[in-house]
Amino acid sequence: MSSDVPLSVLDLVPISSGSTAAEALRNTLDLARRAEEFGYHRYWLAEHHLNPGVAGTSPALIISLVAGATARIRVGSGAVQLGHHTPLSVVEQFGLLDAVHPGRIDLGLGRSGGAPRTPAAPAEGAAGVAEGAGESEEPGKEEALGKEDGPGKEDGPGRTEGTFTDSGLYLPPKYTGFARLLASPRFRLHQALLRQPGATTPEYPDQIDDILALLAGKYRSADGVEAHVVPGEGAAVEVWILGSSGGTSALTAAARGLPFAANYHVSPGTVVEAVEAYRKAFRPSPALAGPRVLVSADVVVAPDDATARRLASGYGLWVRSIRTAEGAIPFPTPEEAARHRWSDEDRALVADRVDTQFVGSPETVVERLEALRAATGADELLITTITHGHEDRVRSYELLADAWAKRS
After folding, report:
1. Of 185, 348, 357, 378, which has the fewest CB atoms closer than 10 Å, so is most exposed?
2. What is d(CA 171, CA 272) in angstroms, rounded to the nearest whole number?
3. How far apart are CA 349 and CA 145, in angstroms?
4. Which helix (H) or strand (E) holds 393?
5. In contact, 301 and 362? CB cutoff 8 Å
6. What does the alpha-carbon distance between residue 65 and residue 68 come to, in Å, rounded to a whole number?
7. DSSP output for 7-55
8. Burial group, residue 9, by CB count within 10 angstroms (0-12, 13-18, 19+)
9. Element at 191 (helix H, strand E)
């Protein structure tokens, strides 16, 4: 694979309809081995909870399994959601991972599940699967699902309301439905089960500072007491900040001179403002002399456009389950997706995600990824792919890697 702009993998450990979490985990290990063979640079695991269709609940545990099943590819979190973890627990977990797999571990950090956000603000920090609890998604100017009864028609829903960058990347209107997710009983259940009663989450920048201090062996309490994490202190983990807008996450990464991962697949309407805010505020650090940007994208590749659209046809229904606070459902078959009847309200609910999923032949998807790279100046692209069939998913990554390496 060409190394000028490497491709990496984001895996939510999706469960297909009719399958099990155990099978999803076996599929993840198989995909990780194959991704290493195909030349992908990193393999990241997302954190999601209480989603019937996603088995990726504990990044550190799955990272351990994936790193043990592979030999060279970097393995990390996309992302650990700091609303559910203390800085000490994160450094201890990733210190253990680095001790066993030195020099291969990435620590991606997000702030979902933490302090309350304003109702219109997206849950930042995941490249994974549930916008109320951290997620990952992405699309492009695609033929939607190619079905009149799907979430969009052939030219995709809502596209006339968005804009295109000079490179041809479609930027849909900003999604405004987060208030409903944050107010839902399911989101309150998340908070109740993932946090101790009465616990409060510190400010996100403070959490990042504590993690960096513990890794560096420079942590001091307010009383001047030192804390040294073993293993963890001095761990050679690569720390990334993940975010969906130009707000707290982007500015935290910039101020500390850390690399930044922006989520086109979660919040496509805000990806350009996110990377621009990060670059504008960036300050050099010992770890990084200049800005470093990774951008995620939701992709399905097949030998031809029609086959790819069929394989991706369950995506709109899956996104709908997330945005109605139902929780990500097991990924539907094309036949299950075709039986669903869409209301105008539901079409609008998923339009930004369906319109920005890159679906098609290798040539079609490479062209759209090039538009994403040009619009964001990405140094690396993070690819997340979900299909009902495991071999179709593996084949998608294989076709993309081959076409990306051969592009002129």
Report:
1. 185
2. 9
3. 15
4. helix 390-406
5. yes
6. 5
7. EEEEE--BPBTT--HHHHHHHHHHHHHHHHHHT-SEEEE----S-TTB-
8. buried
9. helix 185-194
Instruction: Please identify which residue in the block is written with the tokens 């759209």.
Output: 368
Q: Do residues 358 and 369 touch, judged by C-beta distance below 8 A? A: yes
Task: Give the up-direction half-sphere exposure of residue 290: CA atoms within 13 A in the CB hemisphere.
Answer: 3
**Contact criterion met (CB below 8 Å) for 112 and 207:** no
Among 67, 38, 142, which residue's Cα sits nearest to residue 394?
A: 38
| Cis, bond preceding 79 (omega within 30 deg of 0) | yes
Rounded Cα gap, residues 331 and 341, in angstroms: 17
| Residue labelled with tokens 């951008």 | 295
pLDDT in tens, 192-235: 899 888 888 899 999 999 999 999 999 999 999 999 999 999 99
Which residue is listed with tokens 């469960």?
Answer: 15
Q: Using one digit for the tens of pLDDT, what is the confidence trace for 224-280?
A: 999 999 999 999 999 999 999 999 999 999 999 999 999 999 999 999 999 999 999
Q: How far apart are CA 219 and CA 209, in angstroms?
A: 9
CB 52 within 8 A of CB 15: yes
| Number of residues in the chain | 408
CB atoms within 10 A of CB 304: 12
